[in-house]
Amino acid sequence: MSDRYARQVLFYGIGEQGQKKLTEKTAGLVGCGALGCTSANLLVRSGLKCLKIIDRDYIEESNLQRQSLFDEEDISKNLPKAVAAQRKLQKVNSRVQIDAVVADINASNIEPLLENADIIIDGTDNFETRFLINDYCVKRGIPWIYGACIGSIGLAMNIVPSKTPCLRCMLDTIPLSGTIETCDTEGIIAPIASMIASIQVAEALKILTDNYETLSKGLLKIDLWRNEIKSLHTDDIREKSDCVTCKQHKYEFLTKDKYSITTSLCGRNSVQVLHPNGYKLDLKKLATRLERVGDITSNKFMLRIKIDKYELTVFPDGRAIITGTNDASVAKGLYAKYIGM
Ligand SMILES: [Zn+2]
């Protein structure tokens, strides 16, 4: 073992054996925003075998306050978050295989995207994706670590299938207050995101090194502004529930008709449109086709065109984020007109 991990190996909870286990493990990170940036950074430095970073978005100026892997140059280069994160972290640790996936994770692609993951870290900002992750993880018996933040409040919870309550058990019994609003409407301070992501990664390290007995139990809730730390007991929730997911084994979010072609991106005056059949787009050809329609900027990861009051950002997987409207039908109309369904 080289010097790189010396301090971590020295730590009683990990040791040489734990470090060896880490170097054989793959983690899937879904969402590379405020939580995801911190998680990715800590995970790559810890020396996994592979980190798969899945994110559908590009970087905006308002992200820089809390999304610690990104800078102004990434914005000027129009880099997707997953790609910018991969480039930064590959310089930190060239031994870890870092896969950047610029995609919207949904029922049609979650299984191939997360196939080899030993653990999933939640860096998402919405419950639809979390329920999808929950279904996938319960079905496959893969642990995942829920995390969410808003304002100065953060939540974290380990979900170990068949051992702890799953997200569906929880939401049928405890309303996770403070998480229904979004950062785009309520704001957020950066320290709570770093803190929750740090807790998620600490828990991930325990799981990946088989230290299950030391896992945090229950739902942790921290409010950094009001100086409150609480742990809500969840011991008997699973026993008492007749959970659709982890008791009845019905994986509703993994069935394809559950996901929608359009998703309104909360608080951003934007709608994401997916191509109904999945689709590989040739961005160069599209640029040629649209050059007389509006101003285009593009690179190999995306093409952006301004048309009237709208801005369409199109990705090679056929997906588009349409800014300037919250109306799904307007967004779909623009997509059909300029990209083609
Ligand atoms: Zn459950």
Give average pLDDT, whole number: 91
CATH homology superfamily name of the largest domain: NAD(P)-binding Rossmann-like Domain
- Main-sheet strand order equals 3-2-1-4-5-6-7-8
Strand composition percent: 15-25%
Radius of gyration: 20 Å
Distance between the termini: 53 Å
Characterization of the model:
- With 341 residues, the chain is of the alpha/beta class.
- The protein has two domains: 3-254, Rossmann fold (3-Layer(aba) Sandwich); 260-338, TATA-Binding Protein (2-Layer Sandwich).
- It has helices at 6-10, 15-22, 34-46, 72-76, 81-92, 110-114, 127-140, 167-173, 183-186, 190-208, 237-240, 283-290, 328-338, and strands spanning 26-30, 50-55, 97-102, 119-122, 144-150, 153-159, 219-223, 228-232, 262-265, 270-273, 295-298, 303-307, 310-314, 320-323.
- The strands form two sheets. It has an eight-stranded mixed sheet with strand order 3-2-1-4-5-6-7-8, with helices on both faces.
- Helix 3 (34-46) packs parallel to helix 5 (81-92) and helix 3 (34-46) packs parallel to helix 10 (190-208).
- The protein is globular.
- The N and C termini lie far apart (53 Å).
- The mean pLDDT is 91.
- The protein binds zinc ion.
- The site of zinc ion has 7 residues, from helix 8.
